[in-house]
Amino acid sequence: MPDHFGQVLWSKKTTTANDDVKLERSELQKKAAVRRIVQNGIRRPTPLRMLKMPSYPQMNGTDSKLDTSKENSDIKLTTSTPLKIGTNAINSAISKDNNTVVLSDAISKYAIDNYNFQPPLGLGPFSRFEKSNILNFPDRLFEEYNSTECITNMGIFQQIGKAWLTVDNKLIIFNFKSATQDYFTIDEIRHSILTVKLIKPKPNVFVDSVNYLLLVSTPIDIYIFAVEYNSVKDKLEIFNTGMSVSTQGLIVDHFETFDKTHDIFFCGKGDSVNVWKLSYSNNEEWFHKKCNKECLTRNSLSTVVPTFNKVPGLNIFGTSDSEISTNNERESISQMQIDQSRSILYTLSTRSVVRAYRIKVLSSGTVSLSHPTAKGPMDLLKDLSTTYGLSNLTPQTKNFKLLKIFPVTNFESNSLFLIAITNTGSRIFINGSANLGDGLALIASHLKLPPPDHKFFQKVSDEKAKQGKDSSLAISSNESSKLSENIYGNTASFLNVTALQLGQAQSVSELLTGLKNCEIISPNIFFGILRLKSENTDRLFVSTPDYGVLKNNNSYVEDFEFLDSYGLIHDIIQLTPTFNATETPAGYYNQFASQYTKDPLEVAVLTNTGIHIYRYRTPDLILEDSLNDNTFKAFAEKYGSREACSTTLYLSCRFGKSEDNKNKATQLFICGGQNASLNKNLTPVVDNVELSDRFYAVILLISRMFRDIWFKEIFKLVPEIKFDSNGFIEDGSVKKIEDRIILSGLTISRNTIEYLLSSLLIILDFLEKNKRSIPGALPPTFNYENNFRDRDFEVCSQAEHIGFRAIFQLLNTVKEGLSFLLFLIEESESSKNSSFKDLVRFMSVQDQADLSSLTFSQFIDNTEEQTQRLLKEILFSIINRNIVRGISVDLIIKNLQERCGSFCSTSDVLIFKAFETLKRAKDISKRDPNLRVKHLQASVDLLKQANNLVTFDTIKEAVEIMLEVNYYSGAIEFLLDMANASPNTTTSDAYNSDYYSSDKLLTNSSKEKDYEKRHMFYKNVFDILVDIDTKAVESVQLINDTENRFQNEENQFITQNGDLITEFTQLRDTSYATCFAYQDKLFHYEFYKWFIEQGVGERLLDIETPYILGFLQECAVKDLQMAKLLVAFHSKHENYYAAAKILYDLANSDFTISLSDRVQYLSQANGFCNCVCPPSVRQEMIEMSTFIADLIAVSNIQEILLQTIISDERGTEESKSKAKEDLDGKILTISELFNDFINPLGYYELALIVFRISDYRNTDDVLSQWELLLNKWHTDYTKNRPNESFYTVVSNLFISVGRKLRDTETVFPVPDLFRLLAKFINQSQPSEKAPVGIIVDIFLKSGVTYDKLYYTLKEMVESTTFEPFEGFTKFLKSEMIYLIKNWYKTDRRLRDVVSSDQILSMTDYQVDTDPIYNYIRTTGIPI
């Protein structure tokens, strides 16, 4: 590959120093922010406490039932990938290890204290500590130590691995681990040394090479020495700083430092119970020396002058309450401790009073102490008796004295603050609570008594001897199974005594009487020194929690044993860090989890003969030292068979052990545990199988090897990066970094990676070698003889093989992941001038920030698209770097594929080659377009071959290069092909169908995600179209603006229509043609929606594709504008029936459309019905026309009703608004209009119109409405009193209504209305005489013809037998005469057949004298 390939191809647009930085908060960063917030809070839990991890993949044993999170639910063996099964199992194993029971919760569950103490047998193979080394003093020191009679103390400076010895005023420091006899002596101190302390110095006081300070206390002064220690060369240098402070009379014997501020606290026997602070600086002022002291528990002058115990009269500054006592012995501090996690200082006085002070850091940086919380012996006894009723324990608690106190950090327990040791060996557990401010409360919650003494065991032994039993307390081998149960579940049952007897024995136990000194080493290991006066020796004992029983059974048991005796034991000092598994109470005591990642605990016992080193025996050491079937069985019974198998697997792979031991361990691993099993109550399917102990053993071993890094971020940020209060990277801190490179390396060291990689290879090699012996490691084969078939066995074998296949996949993936990280380190160290920053130089700041949030588990289980993309980005960045350096890309790819093929797959190689081809195409001159297109097509083919692993960002980068060479149509077709190359194309199409056919969609469904993924490709296509549209317009505008439009005839010409064609307009046309021609329904739908979003939806009417009609039809269901567009589409294509049908449906739809618009739609639809249509739809068109006409009639009534309600004076604004809301929208049915509005509101005229439209034929209801209407008119007339006469008003109103109803006899019955109107006019206003013919005129003006009215009135005259009102007959005849005369005047034909004399002579109407009737009767011709 050419050297110039790389940077142009792979580097994103990097952020320069002048660019604004705005990091996007990705999901990876959000998870990392949560971790930072929790870690920087009150407690620093491990990642598993913050992110709940999933359980084993459907593993139904009790050990596998863990809390699960929503994100990581149970993984099914049959449906999950092997890698997912493996990583999920690791997650679950670590989660379980990190959530074991809290010691303080388990310790208080028992009425008696449970010990595993078996004199004189001891603990046998399960002994917890062994002596690992004896370090003698240098000969000269030993001689001096034994010959002196002066004050002699000794100890160990653990920080620098040196021991110290004081002989009078001389301090000797020597390397107790070295075989040399060299030592360092400080003999310039003038007075006897009381105590020494090695501490960390305050920053910016001494030079950087001074990494420790040595404090030396004498009866007169405190001296500060500077210490320079080089751990690599083991070089120690001590300098006298000249700093000292007078402490005459204090007798300082205790120093403690507060880690947060490096402040030094001290106290002395000569100053009661006061606490002092030692200050030092590199500046000296008038009133402040470089070194001074201050009392923090007294005020004013007494803060700098001590209170002397021996000199009467000098206590002039008052006496504290704690000093007032009838006891002649003056109280002083015997011990001082600081709980660094809670910022509490504890002191223990010679009167067994515990005082607790809150350490407060002021804004100025100085510290002060709060008012003390004191707990004396009586207070502690009161708490215990109140809580537990310990009256029967008075022999242990009477007149006790507190020997020592030990703080318990909040990493170990939230509630337990302190453990106090009495002189009888009892332990008092003190709970506490620290409130805001100075509030601090302490209460004794539990008293742990020592084990029964030898007298009790002798008594039990004697009683057994009397009963004929073996006087020994030893247990025979056939009782080994009972041993574990009884000792660790019920000690009283094992010894054949009651719990009450055992409790009484512990309460009077003298086993630890004479306790001289003690030490509690976290986690809760109790060391003690007994002074045996009869033997003039010190005896060492230890009581260790059985962490395995605590983890496996949630039970608290301590293994108590005596170790060795010495002439004199000075002190017990912890040499190595504690082996806590977590930094939270849950999981803190799980020693099994940390046994492979932390060194075994070592404790130094300082004696008069030398330093004796004791080492804690981890589970693997216990099993290794006695590797046999009995020990394995006992181990499995105590801690579970999975733990036993996991330990033997570790021993099988352990380096440097004999083949016999390895073979035995392998045998126990394969045969010692339980096989895969199936609950008989469950269906025999693979997902219901509980896998074997061998599977869990491998998972446990791997999880514990990787637990320290599994949830740890891999990549380290530069120190300049800061975080905001929410845990996110501050954009401002990134801006300050000029090169915008925020990653500085890996958080995992090279040594750690190499160690884990080599260990992993050993495990893989072991599994491969023993594959044929390990059930499930190979695919199962079944031999069915005699038609015998064990279905359960078959299912279990299949499940076991799935599990082991997942293990192999996991181990190989982790191996390649570690190899990839090691490759990164090697690349960053490939030359003197190279660094890790060079590897990420081609990555964007956003990608670097995301990488900094990537944990090792996410790195291994890289199924998330974002993780895959980040890994590809860093891989591409490495490729770029090596290309710039001139190194062959093929060589790098080959190296990566050989070492970590899954991180550099074949698809990655195809991508590299594709981009190389793109770069070549870019470099080819425009004069050879065919060759350029050939390279472009070749690169597209390569990318398509790797489509499953090509990230969207990579595709975008390829498209950008294509666009740079104006390969627009090819880029569009490439994007569309990649969108359809997804294996989930069908689901995204289904989502699209659901979108148009359903009102509601499931959020976060897989369909939606696949749809969104394809939509990203489509959006990129649309962006390309926008780009080419812009360039096309600009190119035309540029030419139009120039004086000579034909300056470059090669790139433009004019068509026959006068349109200007340029290179970009041609590219635009071909790009759109490519889109329209592509066969993808989903794309076309999104394409058409894009047209609408761009405001050019009308262009859809010009599109001729197989998808446009379906798109418009599906969209019209939910979108009004699309429905209108569909109408226009049908109209343009002369499909008038479909257009009318859509408009009719719109008028009846639930869209928010006003009533007037609905009426307009109906009118347009009616117009389409009148258009020419094919004969095949003529009948449907006629029916549609009828439906439309009916709906128009109803809508007109609704419109009149709405206007009537709005103009009705009776209504309120609220009611009118409600009516408008109900009526100015969807067209209601005629029944709804009448029943809900017209009838209740008394709109009688509209009621009659409704009767007409609906062809209502109930005459009584019709006449009732007419009568109500006439009454309403009369009421309105009476109320308003207009200037017109009543009959005139009624006449006008009736005529207005009659014209609307005259053509419907059922609603406008003339005879009935004539009678009703005649009665109403003549009787409603008796004072007003209506003129003759008023009724006839009303009907005539209403539209009733003369002939119809004549025949109606003639029939009424002939048929009237009773009068509706008095004078009705006379009134009727007069109206008839008026009718005939007026008819005669207006009808020429009538005048031709009837003489005027006959008409004029009519004064009283009679049928027989009716000239018209006589003519008809005579001639038989109707008029």
Automatic annotation (TrEMBL):
<keyword id="KW-0813">Transport</keyword>
<feature type="domain" description="Nucleoporin Nup133/Nup155-like C-terminal">
    <location>
        <begin position="692"/>
        <end position="1417"/>
    </location>
</feature>
<dbReference type="GO" id="GO:0006606">
    <property type="term" value="P:protein import into nucleus"/>
</dbReference>
<dbReference type="GO" id="GO:0044611">
    <property type="term" value="C:nuclear pore inner ring"/>
</dbReference>
<protein>
    <submittedName>
        <fullName>BA75_03152T0</fullName>
    </submittedName>
</protein>
<dbReference type="InterPro" id="IPR007187">
    <property type="entry name" value="Nucleoporin_Nup133/Nup155_C"/>
</dbReference>
<dbReference type="InterPro" id="IPR042533">
    <property type="entry name" value="Nucleoporin_Nup155_C_1"/>
</dbReference>
<comment type="similarity">
    <text>Belongs to the non-repetitive/WGA-negative nucleoporin family.</text>
</comment>
<feature type="domain" description="Nucleoporin Nup133/Nup155-like N-terminal">
    <location>
        <begin position="126"/>
        <end position="613"/>
    </location>
</feature>
<dbReference type="Pfam" id="PF08801">
    <property type="entry name" value="Nucleoporin_N"/>
</dbReference>
<dbReference type="GO" id="GO:0017056">
    <property type="term" value="F:structural constituent of nuclear pore"/>
</dbReference>
<dbReference type="Pfam" id="PF03177">
    <property type="entry name" value="Nucleoporin_C"/>
</dbReference>
<dbReference type="GO" id="GO:0036228">
    <property type="term" value="P:protein localization to nuclear inner membrane"/>
</dbReference>
<dbReference type="InterPro" id="IPR042537">
    <property type="entry name" value="Nucleoporin_Nup155_C_2"/>
</dbReference>
<keyword id="KW-0539">Nucleus</keyword>
<dbReference type="InterPro" id="IPR004870">
    <property type="entry name" value="Nucleoporin_Nup155"/>
</dbReference>
<dbReference type="GO" id="GO:0006405">
    <property type="term" value="P:RNA export from nucleus"/>
</dbReference>
<dbReference type="GO" id="GO:0000972">
    <property type="term" value="P:transcription-dependent tethering of RNA polymerase II gene DNA at nuclear periphery"/>
</dbReference>
<dbReference type="InterPro" id="IPR014908">
    <property type="entry name" value="Nucleoporin_Nup133/Nup155_N"/>
</dbReference>
